[in-house]
Amino acid sequence: MRADRPVAIPTRGYRRIGVAVSGGADSCALLRLLAGERSQDPRLYTCVLHVDHGMRPDSASDAEFVKRLAGEFGLPFFSKRFRVRPSKGMSPEMAAREARLSFFRECTQRLSLDAIATGHHADDAIETFFLRLARGAGLSGLAGLKPVSRIPGITFIRPLINTPDKALRAWLRSMGCAWREDSTNADTSIARNLVRRRVIPYLEKTLDRSLRAHVAQTLDILREEDEFMEAAAHEAMERGTPFSAMPAAVARRAARAFLRSKGLPDGFRETAEFLERGGVPPAEEDREDGVRAEARFTLAIAEDRGWRPATRGIGKFPSEAWLSAESIAGRSLEVRPWRPGDRIHASGVGGAKKIQDVFTDLKVPRRIRSTLPLLASDAGEVLWVPGWRVSSRAAVPDGKSRSWHFTLSPDADVEIRS
User: Fold this and answer.
1) 3-state SS assignment for residue 49
2) DSSP state of 199
3) Is 355 exposed, middle or buried (0-12, 13-18, 19+ CB in 10 A)?
């Protein structure tokens, strides 16, 4: 007997989606669900992304399994194999995560993806709650995995976040669909596996048989209250309310947002010290002397076809980008500093994003922001943030389309210091 489809997949607002597929039951279910959405809407671009961390002997066969699965649905398949080498003080799991994020950023830019969908389900969210509770966390941390989250360069969507793992597996079994089991999931020396295999079952047995359902309800409440507190902090800042006049919980959030806007560390200790000083940031970072730094750049332009990955980081030059010849035909372009209110429609950021927020997210020091150039049209539209990405409205669609290759270099007497 075939089980009911476990969840409807909302794709509105995201037209180009990369599906992160490890080969496990959750990601395989997600891929099948999204492939079903694509069959109903051919305009929806879906591709399969797989990372082989090289941490298990059978990882190569997992990659082959996912590649075959992508072929079953006629979807583009992109994969990368890493040799995870944790640096000092970093766990193998954390090193693997950093490798995944690096690959996902690369794919988001190269393929102009609006979002990357992951197979995180309700049980993952519950496990994350207990892990963060054990380590100590505030409301945002305990709210845990969210349906949509953004980090610099990537928008993640988690369509299965409210669906239990058991429901996904039952659905796959009912259709005779295979998946891969990660052999390391049995290793309880890994904290998440310990929580999944021992802590939660023990609490269910001795404390509450409906523990998962009750924690899921708690997570819904925490997410809503987290959103409310975030909005309250931003409103207080917009009104110009002094930090000392804000409730302590709002002040902490507002302080973190303020520090991020300055490109300063916004951890718990830094935030507490900032508030203890009465909301005064370090003098060097907060100084406003009214002097605008000036810099001169040379822009070289050449005809080309297609594009190549060229991100180096904001403030690093020379910087290169490829823009669609068709999309910028007839436009006048200029290189200029950013202006308040400037936005860019870039892939992977969920629509238009303020350039100021880009600088904040990437922790670009405030003191160099006025020296950084943008490429904009005569209508004021930002087409390229050098060292970061181009507007999705001017992106080169494929490797054969006509393009213009831009290279931006500072003049010899200019030095950008971060």
Assistant:
1) strand
2) I
3) buried
Tell me the torsion sign for CA atoms 312, 93, 348, 308.
Answer: positive
**Residue listed under structure tokens 């389309």:** 401
Q: What is the pLDDT of residue 289?
A: 38
Look up the CATH superfamily of 297-410. Phenylalanyl-trna Synthetase, Chain B, domain 3 (3.50.40.10)
Enumerate helices (H) and strands (E) in the chain, giving the number of each.
15, 15
Do strands 115-117 and 154-157 pair parallel, antiparallel, or not at all (unpaired)?
parallel
45-52 and 16-20 beta bridge pairing = parallel
Phi, psi of 352 (to 5 degrees): -70, 140
Burial class, 160, CB count within 10 angstroms (exposed 0-12 / middle 13-18 / buried 19+): buried
CB neighbours of residue 193 within 10 Å = 16
Q: What are phi and psi of 117, to 5 degrees?
A: -95, 135
| 3-class secondary structure, 81 | strand
CATH top class, domain 16-206: alpha beta
Q: Please list the rounded mean pLDDT of every run of 10 residues in the chain (418 residues).
A: 64 84 95 87 89 78 93 93 65 76 89 93 95 88 89 88 94 93 84 94 96 95 93 90 90 86 73 80 43 62 84 81 88 81 75 82 78 83 89 85 87 42
Q: How far apart are CA 207 and CA 90, in angstroms?
A: 34
Collapsing DSSP to helix, strand or coil, 71 comes out as helix
- Non-local (6+) Cβ contacts of 258 within 8 A are 237, 274, 279, 281
Measuring CA to CA, which residue among 343, 399, 400, 408 is closest to residue 371? 408
Q: What is the pLDDT of residue 27?
A: 96
Residues of the chain with CATH 3.50.40.10: 297-410
Q: Which residues pair with 151 in a beta bridge?
A: 154
Calpha distance 181→186 (Å, rounded):
10
